[in-house]
Amino acid sequence: MNEFALLLGSTFSAGTVLAIAGLGLLINERAGIINLGAEGLMLVAAIAGFATAVGTGSDLLGFAAGMGAGAALAAVFGVLVIWLNTNQYATGLALSLFGSGFSAFVGIRFTQERLGDRFKFEIPFLADLPLVGPALFKHHPMVYLAVALALGLAWFLYRTRAGLVLRAVGESPESAHALGYPVRRIRLAAVVAGGALCGLAGAYLSVIYTPLWVEGMVAGRGWIALALTTFATWRPARILLGAYLFGGVTMLQFHLQGEGVQIPSQWLTMLPYLATIVVLVLISRNPTWIRVNMPASLGKPFFPGH
């Protein structure tokens, strides 16, 4: 049972990276913008956050640097696709490639760096409970922040006027524009906010979860987070559930290796990505379900006055 509690606890930690990034991408897509550059954003944010944490000794400054790097790159992406009307898919892929190369170049001098001992967080009294204590109440505050973000975003999207406007821009930017809403500025704000959350996920990965810098350390999490938005049919609570599902599959491979299960390590490493493909295939069997929930203008350019 203790092993199960540890597996559950590590699942929440692993899923947090995917949850925060997935929620950021959800904001983008609800506004009608699809950003395939999440992997690159997270890599640049990871090195920015790690370098800042090493230089200052402050995790909070590391998180701020990661969010700033993610927001800045997302702003460039937003200007290109929203004002210059470049292709969203091609621009996102270019951003992903740029982030991968740039982070590898900048991170060369940080490959031998190590952060100091990480402070162990736990909630008093609750952390001492058997089973549920280690599983639920001994996490970094960022794990609980991911849950709060999902709940807050669900409230924002479905209970506030601003959330209604954001969804309207994603469904029919022409109608929103006709009603007098600044569609381009709203989309840019959504892209920057989504980039900041992707940046926070990258910084959490390098500063807390690992904590070290290795070239390409995001290791496909940006792509899985992108798949999560479809898996969750653009709903915040389902993104949280999907993130923990994939986080659990990721940690299961290490658990099985630790138990000495005789399965080739390559197969175990493939598990999270196989799970992603299987889930997407199952969802794709019902295209009507996706079509009903998907923002109608997702990936489509908007030309005011046309």
UniProtKB/TrEMBL annotation:
Pfam families hit by this protein: BPD_transp_2
Residues annotated as transmembrane: 6-26, 33-54, 60-84, 91-110, 141-158, 188-207, 213-232, 239-255, 267-284
Keyword Cell division: no
Cellular localisation: Cell membrane
GO CC terms, sorted: plasma membrane
PANTHER family: ABC TRANSPORTER PERMEASE PROTEIN, SUGAR ABC TRANSPORTER INTEGRAL MEMBRANE PROTEIN-RELATED
Protein's UniProt name: ABC transporter permease
